[in-house]
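Structure tokens please, single chain.
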Amino acid sequence: MPVSDSAVLPLQKAVIATLTGDSTLMALIQGVFDWVKEDQPYPYIAIGEAVETPDNTHDSHGSNTVITLHVWSKYRGYAQALTIAARVRALLEHRPLTIAGHRHVATYYVSLQTITDPEPPGDIRHVPISFRVLTQVSP
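Here you go.
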């Protein structure tokens, strides 16, 4: 698959557009970011890692991409971060995405984990949530 046909950057842009376009989610967070400034207020979502593998057919190029989003919160306990993650899941799982240069085939929820940042003062909650997105390069 040519580098220009990679789904990762267009997928990242589609996810950001979907999340920031939802007023319910945006009322819960301070933003969705690809890069987070040092003094960013909590809670927020950071676009994280992506692993893309080919998912070709005989006559077309496709991708199987696992993208991870990171929910960050300073709320005591996980309730806030898990509420945000649930909204993200509702927006992405089995929902169509408009991905430039690619045809969206499907989005599947993969996993979610709750993590407490061990660095003092230990008050940051981190919830990575991953999705598998199948795409085909548009003709």
